[in-house]
Design goal:
This protein is about 40% helix and about 20% strand. The chain has about 400 residues and is of the alpha+beta class.
């Protein structure tokens, strides 16, 4: 029986795979990507061999080295990760116009209707995989299924570099016996709750009635439907009105200092704002999500009555979202800022009108410097001091 046409591309351990490609001596060895000089360095990515040793993302580097003596660590290089992610997306666009970027190294590709050019979806997927290897040196895990949920679970099962094409009859068989934590939408907190209820496989979640699923929360029925392999969400190439710009900061060490959180959020807002203005767009909504030191999460959002284009305006909006997200007096480990509800902002000067202020005139000058020397060419002195450990 033919497989589905929704392909998920999962470049497992993208940062670690890049390092291995640059340094052949790392092949076959356990190693991690971590900011070794940070006071509380965390594992940001790791090789398959390190994963087999019991190491996991988010683990303290000190703990990882206790489990695996002599563990090598390489510094994070986000610019190389972003470049590889861009090349993966470009390769996918050669095979289909419907490509959804779902995070660094993660893509959904709709191969329906491409048969006359590239053959059946199974053949097109294999050709795409070869093209990605040619462009990046990476061999990501690929899975074909009838929808995004099933294909994403499948790449988690056949990681790090497998390929599977599932027919509709095979999908429920694959899902049913997998750990419930592999289902998209099940994070650490919900996974713990499900385990307390005796639900440790996706098939057990799929068997819940609607009243039982509602006991998990308002989105419980939707989660149970996904566990049954039901997902009607399309592969979305992100039109402007639904596009989301996302940036995150790992706080090393964890902190509850409001000024540190403000500085980190300001840096994220400035970086994302520069990208928005370069594309001639503005955003009206900011959303902040955070992970506390104990693993709990918080989120909040704020919406402005009009577009926000300047960095100071966007930071004010982001701080309002942070105030709604942060409800606990616990140190924060990770901070994420998302900008959404984009609209074209028109010519550059329109971004800063009708106000006639020094800040309005300053923003284009700052952008010209960043455009010439890079987004990090200008940073607040307090942030530089913070990063230097002062």
């Amino acid at each position: 029986m033919a497989s589905g046409s929704i392909l998920h591309v999962n470049a497992v351990g993208l940062m670690a795979a890049i390092e291995e490609g640059l340094d052949g001596s790392l092949r076959g060895r356990p190693f991690v990507v971590a900011n070794e000089g940070a006071p509380r360095a965390l594992v940001l990515d790791l090789s398959p061999e390190a994963h087999r040793e019991g190491l996991r993302r988010g683990m303290a580097l000190r703990e990882a080295r206790l489990l695996c003596p002599g563990l090598a660590a390489r510094p994070p290089r986000p610019e190389l990760r972003d470049l590889a992610d861009e090349r993966l997306a470009r390769a996918a666009l050669e095979f289909s116009p419907l490509v959804e970027r779902a995070g660094a190294g993660h893509l959904f590709v709709d191969l329906a209707g491409t048969g006359r050019l590239f053959g059946p979806p199974e053949d097109a997927a294999q050709r795409l995989r070869a093209r990605m290897a040619e462009e990046t040196g990476l061999r990501p895990c690929l899975a074909l299924a009838s929808n995004k949920t099933v294909s994403k679970v499948a790449t988690r099962v056949f990681r790090p570099g497998g390929f599977v094409a599932l027919s509709p009859g095979e999908e429920s068989l694959l899902l049913g016996r997998q750990p419930v934590g592999l289902l998209p939408g099940v994070g650490p907190v919900l996974r713990s709750r499900l385990l307390l209820l005796g639900i440790d496989e996706i098939g057990e979640l799929a068997g819940l009635s609607r009243p039982e699923a509602l006991a998990l929360g308002p989105r419980g029925p939707e989660l149970a439907a996904r566990a049954r392999g039901l997902d009607a969400s399309p592969v979305d190439p992100e039109p402007l009105g639904r596009r989301v710009l996302r940036g995150e900061a790992l706080l090393e060490p964890d902190t509850s200092d409001p000024e540190v959180l403000r500085l980190r959020l300001g840096a994220l807002a400035a970086g994302l704002g520069f990208s928005l203005r370069a594309g001639g767009s503005g955003a009206a909504r900011a959303s902040v999500s955070l992970v506390y030191a104990d693993g709990e999460r918080g989120s909040g959002s704020a919406r402005a009555p009009g577009l926000r284009a300047r960095d100071d305006e966007r930071l004010d909006l982001a701080l309002a979202a942070l105030a709604r997200a942060r409800k606990r007096r616990v140190r924060v480990r990770r901070l994420c800022l998302e900008l959404s509800e984009f609209l074209p902002a028109g010519p550059e000067l329109d971004l800063f009108e009708p106000e006639d202020s020094r800040l309005a005139r300053l923003q284009p000058a700052l952008d010209r410097i960043r455009g010439k020397y890079g987004a990090k060419a200008l940073s607040p002195g307090a942030l530089l001091a913070l990063e230097a450990g002062a």
